[in-house]
Design brief:
This protein is α+β, with helices and mostly antiparallel strands. It contains 17 helices and 19 strands. Strand 8 and strand 9 (about 185-190) form a beta hairpin. This is FAD-linked oxidase C-terminal domain-containing protein.
Length: about 500
């Protein structure tokens, strides 16, 4: 994995940089011990590891601004980090960089029920917001599978989704305001408790920017009322094609479930052995469809979905009869990743999105790739919006298996683009998909994206080596290329 070459001059200044940082913030928040730094050497993409030069743990926005201002002046690279649950290597440190950990930003600052929003710090776990407002009948909608651990700041950086994003949207659809610190140390406030902001959609630009544009220090999120009723339907099918057609038919009928998830047989068996949710073990594909809203509406829609599933040859159907049973059905799906971890020494979790109609074709091709590479794959995905999460199982201790898993994963992502999809749905590009970006974007597209990066971070100090496939500087975008001594367009004046 090609990363920016460490700057020997910066590494030589490490002791002086440590001393300077200890003067900026509480010395206890500056970590330089090589053993202690091991805790930060990777995120959820454990295949790649690199301890940072220094880790810093600021306590407030002023300290973040001071650190970034200092690093900008000294030309020191900075990698922001939330809870470290990223699955794309987005928080992979740099050997000559500072890792900026936001774990101490863990307070819910305000809950405003009148305006149905909450103001939180970026280190607050996703699920903690829903827990804090549950007694008043509210919740925060985006619910990644890692919601017990992943931080809101990380959710903003990756534009995280979850099993209920089909109806309630991704992180970007549930944000009202952000406080961010630029690489220069300047603090910006964007949006707020009001519905819409004037001018350019800067919040839309920052959401999903993977720590390349600024560091989030405060987030205002939208709160929703819990639906009156929610019921989940568990349906088994004899083939992935039948389950995929059921998904298409439900959407075509004008029904938008709160969530619609699918698992293939290997994933179902791994999850059932782990959670014991009562999944049908004989099914080749499993659908979980949740309907929510007023009770009479939910009962009506549930009967419609049951009829559609039966038309598509469902081999079994079971609707939750209680809230406890509904949560158990979802517990299995949300435990899919750790369940696979019980049956394989290592696994590589991919993230690509395809048109729903291409699901049978893509699953068939993945089965062919599995046989070609000699690696097992289990599939769990957000069926409603076509966001796939193939889990490639391998053993890193066996020579060549990690490389095979990487190639297998790259082929899956290229397949997603080939059928009209995209490289990522919610995990981000990071380092994992960085070198595949030209499969989806032209040089012109990538240059335009780089110009936006340069507008926020002209020295390329924030999270370098991520997202963009070619490691280059902002100045190179405007460089004039001279071929055989000839200027381009000699008929035009050059200044």
């Amino acid at each position: 994995m090609l990363m920016p070459e460490p700057d020997a001059a910066v590494l030589a200044r490490r002791p002086q940089l440590v001393d300077a940082l200890k003067r900026l913030i509480d010395p206890a928040g500056v970590i330089a011990d090589p053993i202690a730094l091991r805790a930060y050497e990777n995120d959820g993409l454990t295949a790649y590891r690199q301890p940072p030069m220094i880790a810093v743990l600021p306590r407030d926005t002023a300290e973040v601004a001071a650190i970034l201002r200092f690093c900008h002046q000294e030309r020191i690279k900075v990698v922001p980090r939330g809870s470290g649950t990223s699955l794309s290597g987005g928080a992979l440190p740099l050997a000559d960089g500072i890792l900026l950990g936001l774990g101490k930003f863990n307070r819910i600052l305000e809950i405003d029920y009148d305006n149905r929003c909450a103001v939180v710090q970026p280190g607050v776990p996703n699920l903690a917001i829903s827990h804090a407002v549950a007694e008043r009948g509210f919740y925060y909608a985006p619910d990644p599978s890692s919601q017990i651990a992943c931080s809101i700041g990380g959710n903003v950086a990756e534009n995280s989704g979850g099993v209920h994003c089909l109806k309630y949207g991704l992180t970007t659809n549930n944000l009202l305001g952000l406080e961010i610190v630029l690489m220069t140390g300047e603090v910006l406030r964007i949006g707020g408790k009001h519905l819409d902001a004037n001018g350019y959609d800067l919040m839309g630009i920052l959401t999903g920017s993977e720590g390349l544009l600024g560091v989030v220090t405060e987030v205002t999120v939208r709160l929703l009322r819990k639906p009156e009723t929610a019921r989940a339907l568990l349906a088994g099918f004899s083939s992935s094609e039948a389950a995929g057609q059921c998904v298409a038919d439900v959407i075509a009928a004008g029904i938008i479930p709160a969530g619609m998830e699918m698992m293939d047989r290997p994933a179902t068996h791994a999850v059932e052995d782990f959670v014991h949710a009562g999944y049908p073990m004989e099914a080749e594909a499993l659908l979980i469809v949740e309907l929510d809203g007023p009770e009479v509406e939910v009962d009506h829609l549930l009967s419609q979905v049951c009829a559609i599933a039966e038309t598509n040859g469902a081999t079994s159907q079971r609707a939750s009869a209680s809230e406890q049973e509904r949560l158990l059905l979802w517990a299995g799906r949300k435990a899919a990743f750790p369940a696979i971890g019980r049956i394989s020494p290592d696994y590589y979790c991919m993230d690509g999105t395809i048109p729903r109609s291409k699901l049978p074709q893509v699953l068939a091709r993945m089965d062919e790739l599995s046989r070609r590479y000699g690696l097992r794959v289990a599939n769990v995905f957000h069926a409603g919006d076509g966001n796939l999460h193939p889990l490639i199982m391998y053993d890193a201790n066996k020579p060549g298996e990690l490389e095979a898993a990487e190639s297998f994963g790259a082929d899956i992502l290229c397949l997603c683009v080939e059928v009209g999809g995209v490289l990522t749905g919610e995990h981000g590009v990071g380092v994992e998909k960085r070198d595949l970006m030209p499969r989806m974007f032209s040089d012109v597209d990538l240059d335009q994206q780089m110009r936006l990066k340069c507008a926020f971070d002209d020295k390329q100090l924030l999270n370098p080596g991520k997202v963009f496939p070619v490691l280059r500087r902002c100045a190179e975008l405007g460089a004039m290329h001279i071929h055989r001594g000839q200027l381009p367009r000699p008929d035009l004046p050059h200044f």
